[in-house]
Design goal:
By secondary structure, this protein is of the alpha/beta class. The protein has one domain (7-217): TIM Barrel (Alpha-Beta Barrel). The chain contains 8 helices and 8 strands. Strand 7 (174-178), helix 6 and strand 8 (196-199) form a beta-alpha-beta unit. The chain binds D-xylitol-5-phosphate (DX5) and zinc ion. D-xylitol-5-phosphate binds at residues 11, 13-14, 36, 38, 69, 142, 144-149, 178-181, 198-202.
């Protein structure tokens, strides 16, 4: 179990796009650690979010790292523009990469941290041969494409299995959980071995988003009964 405090990454997908600057400022002022940026192409997922010009605008005001989740086919075409638009971490989907090892190397060559996201149906065992090359694995706990969906409970077992696989191979691996995260499931996810929680609607739809981020950040699995 990591002694380091877990990280919170609010997903800008759930922000008010007409008041994006205020919402970015809110995240800056909160105890959140990263901005989670969801880029969708309408092909890999049945939705289109926003693209690199919007990400550049976010980067201009964000004072915390940008954790970019590319839900797009053939992401190699966009790695450079992604980095140039302000990405610190670039996560591609396992299901969208024919030459995943090459893609991860390209992300690192740009100076970014490299992540892989797995859809709910994709077994974590498939990452065995690239595990040592990864900075982050994003386990999707909903089918990607939309915010506000119901958390898939099989994710607990996936987190636990992946943390076990990473032991002794990549002890510093970030395990991020994305989709339907709330204070109802966060403690159990952390206990299973997750250390980055993405939260979209739970944070941005809250009456007090700053307090909501704090409630996620304050979870202490050593004192909490789960
Ligand atoms: C879904 C995105 C998520 C989404 C999470 O495709 O990858 O990052 O914004 O939103 P919530 O927390 O509302 O499920
Ligand atoms: Zn995401």
């Amino acid at each position: 179990m990591s002694l380091q405090k877990h990280l919170i990454a609010p997903s800008v997908l759930a922000a008010d796009f007409a008041n994006l600057r205020d919402d970015i400022q809110m995240v800056n002022n909160s105890e959140a650690d990263w901005f989670h940026i969801d880029i969708m192409d309408g092909v890999f997922v049945p939705n289109i979010s926003f693209g690199f010009p919007v990400m550049q605008a976010i980067a201009k005001h964000a004072t915390k790292p940008l954790d970019v989740h590319l839900m797009i086919v053939d992401p190699d075409r966009y790695l450079k523009v992604c980095k140039d638009s302000g990405a610190d971490i670039i996560t591609v989907h396992y299901e969208a990469c024919t030459h995943l090892h090459r893609t991860l190397a390209a992300i690192k060559e740009l100076g970014c941290k490299a992540g892989v996201a797995l859809n709910p149906h994709t077994p974590v065992a498939l990452l065995k041969d690239v595990l040592a090359d990864l900075d982050l694995v994003c386990l999707m706990s909903v089918n990607p494409g939309f915010g506000g969906q119901k958390f898939i409970t099989n994710t607990y077992a996936k987190v636990q299995e992946l943390r076990g696989m990473a032991q002794g191979v990549n002890d510093g691996l970030f395990i991020e959980v994305d989709g339907g995260v709330t204070t109802d499931n966060a403690a159990r996810l952390l206990k299973a071995g997750a250390d980055v929680l993405v939260a979209g609607s739970f944070v941005f739809s809250a009456k007090d988003p700053i307090a909501t981020v704090k409630s996620l950040k304050d979870i202490d699995i050593n004192v909490q009964n789960i």
